[in-house]
Amino acid sequence: MRGLLGIETLERAEIEAVLARAKDFQPAPHESFPRLDAARGRMVVNLFFEASTRTRTSFEIAAKRLGADAISISASTSSVSKGESLVDTLNTLVAMRPDAIIMRHKASGAPHFLARYLPGTPIINAGDGTHEHPTQALLDARTILDHRPSLEGLKVAIIGDIAHSRVARSNVYLLSKFGASIVLCGPASLVPKELASIAPGVSITYDIREAIKGADVAMMLRVQFERLHEPAFPAGEYFSFYGLRLEHLDLMKPDAIVMHPGPINRGREIASDVADSQRSVILNQVENGVAVRMAVLERILCQNC
Amino acid sequence: MPKLLIKNGRILDPVNGRDEVGDVLIRGGLVVRVGGDQHATGAVAFDATGLVVAPGFIDMHTHLREPGFEHAETIESGSKAAAAGGFTTVCAMPNTRPVNDDATVTRYILERASRSAIVNVLPIGAITEDSAGEKLAAIGSMRQAGCVAISDDGHPVMNSRVMRRAMEFARAFDIPVIDHCEDLNLSAGGDMHEGELAAKLGLRGIPSASEDVMVARDILLAELTGARFHVAHISSKRSLEMVRQAKDRGLKVTCEAMPHHFGLDESDIVPYDSNYKMKPPIRSAMDREALVEALASGVVDAIATDHAPHPGSEKMQEFEQCPFGIIGLETALAVALEALVHTGKLPLAKLVQLFSAGPARILGLDRGHLSPGAPGDVTIFDPDLDWTYDVSRSFSKSANSPWHGHRFRGGPVATVVAGKIVWQRSGERSAGD
Predict the structure, then answer these.
(1) For chain A, which end, N or C, has fewer CB atoms within 10 Å of the first or last residue's CB respectively?
(2) Is A201 found in the same domain as A95?
(3) Which chain A residue has the Cα nearest residue B203?
């Protein structure tokens, strides 16, 4: 693996290998994560141009559990706040010879742009704008596979602000590669109709009941108000029409699961009692975040280990 | 008086219906005699055997960036790029600093051009003061000072009442009103054509409708006022349909097409490469086909470049932050030959017309033809020239081109302005050699 920019271009076999390896890294119940030194002496730089709690922390933990050195830089404490360009910032970091750069950026394609100019350093995309968030899709797949034998034939409803969601795009690409059927749902202004044709097996509905009917998985997404340039739906109507409530769970498969990449807005896209219900696997997702990122980092850092 | 004798070329002059091998004599800056085997003592001779000799090309949509943005382009560097692209005349858009919104700025540009430009530079004045879309600019005095059209290019006049007044006033001065048709509310935040690719790449889209609603509005205002209205860089199928209908109704509506719109579509875009970022955006295959058809059928009146230099530091950024626009003077003819003529969509004479007589007619210029007494501006090109575009050797001060490294069939060979060879290709060989 030479960096990880997105799921779209990733081979199915590569995804399977990461998911299988991530299982090895899952801690047994009531145990902490295993500590390894597979990547001793390697250095990763966590470069976050956008706020993040779980992704940054879990990459950092994953690197340390593999024995690598991890340095975290956030845009506000770096030269970026002094007006340095993205290319100059990255050139400076690359001169310090990190073994990989983990990067989050608010602009779609920022890591792809850098990968073209800095071909020597593996770049791991930790979320670029409204484009992709590959490790999130991998950990979501790991979480689903903890509850289902395979992804093939599953019905997965992704509900919320699809337009601005990198999580949705990466999940669509991944699930589609494994033959799941994906239903995208949300207010029409937040579900671009073009997304139905970006991968096989994708459909769109604006009715949450239709979306979750018989579904194996409901992935809830928050509305990214910070990216909305104008009101995209009538204020106050979101929860009534697109919030997941307890009564909806009866429409799904009996053993269906509810997921959310976080951060959660209780009472907006998901009712509090649903988030805390037995169906919710939100905290398993967080746990799998570390395991999956260990698997990804191992593949990138330890090719010659 | 200095004389230039262009020998043995294929003279292609659509206005005079001429397509024959022969000589062109230029004396004192004017065309003297066209056709036949000529001899002129003391004349500089240019052997145009195997080449096309056409009326000088006019780019009615160029950004020369001077005054104000000389780090991106100057009148001198832009004029050299124009000459290397076969253009003998360029029209300079007013989005300079200061904006060309009064006669003082117009005269400054003309004065700078007379000192440093190697091709003719005709300024385009702003529609409104500072192109802010509120108060009308000094349209009358700019016209007197030498502006050939008015436009708030890049800053479309959003207020329909202001646009109406501008058209009414411009009509009295017989000057075309050029609009960059874009509803800024509909396109806000967009970085590329709204379609599957934008949705995939997570980039905000610029819908065709943002262009179409303004084309519709401006056509209605042109009808209301009787003004000459010209659509800049038309790119969408629906807009082309509306221009065709307007022409059928007898309105004075014209439009221009850009090489990047008829030479490229979404499928050619390199993701997140800012050399593919411009306004209007590169659109769908359907729009591109409609544009090629409209060029062939006469709905489109001219080919122009929208040459928009931006220095590397501005284009080497996150895609969302890069400015819009690409350079295009040096590649326009080659792209047009490749996309239109070598594909069999357009006869060569039609292509020449779109580069010369077409824009001249829109702007009311006595140019774009090789009649005795006309300006001695000639574009000499080889429709089969085998060459590769190297943007690092561009005359432009900027290098933002999607065609860097592209191998072309056909391109300019020499450019003549007022009887003087201002640029001549060296190095490449014709495919026929």
Answers:
(1) C
(2) no
(3) A108
- B430, pLDDT greater than 60: no
> pTM for the full model?
0.94
Q: Report the residue of chain B nearest A117, measured CA to CA.
A: B316
Task: Please tell me the distance from the alpha carbon of residue B31 to that of residue B6, in angstroms, as a whole number.
Answer: 11
Rounded Cα distance between B178 and B154, Å, is 11
What residues of A act catalytically?
54-55, 82, 104, 133
Q: Tell how far CA A194 is from the center of its chain.
A: 21
Q: What is the pLDDT of residue B433?
A: 39
User: Are the C-beta atoms of B379 and B356 separated by less than 8 Å?
Assistant: yes
Q: Which domains does chain B have, with CATH numbers?
A: 3-53+375-386+400-430 (2.30.40.10), 56-363 (3.20.20.140)
Which pLDDT does position B261 carry in this prediction? 98
* Per-residue pLDDT at B316 exceeds 90: no
Same domain, A180 and A247: yes
Cα angle vertex B297, ends B291, B299, to 5°? 65
Of chain A, the percentage scoring pLDDT greater than 70 comes to: 97
Q: In angstroms, how far is CA B387 from the centroid of its own chain?
A: 22
- A118 close contact with B: CB closer than 8 A: no
pLDDT digits (tens, 9 = 90+) for B176-223: 999 999 999 999 999 999 999 999 999 999 999 999 999 999 999 999
- The per-residue pLDDT for A304 is 58
Distances (CA, A) of A151 to A285, B215, B278: 16, 49, 41
The mean pLDDT value of chain B amounts to: 96
Phi-psi region of B65 (alpha: psi -120 to 50; beta: other; left: phi over 0): left
Q: What angle in degrees, to the nearest 10, is found between the helix axes of B237-248 and B208-225? A: 20
pLDDT tens across B102-139, in order? Answer: 999 999 999 999 999 999 999 999 999 999 999 999 99
Say if CB B55 and CB B16 are below 8 A apart.
no
| Angle of CA points B251, B253, B255, to nearest 5° | 160
Q: How close is the nearest chain B Cα to the Cα of A246, in Å?
A: 32
Residues A3, A300 contacting (CB under 8 angstroms): yes
Which of B195, B199, B317 is nearest residue A86 as measured by Cβ atoms? B317
Its domain, for residue A88, covers 12-132+286-301
Q: Is B200 near chain A, with CB under 8 Å?
A: yes
Give yes or no: B306 in active site. Answer: yes
Q: B306, B377, B386, B433: which one is catalytic?
A: B306
Query: Who's near B321: CB < 8 A, 6+ residues apart?
Result: A107
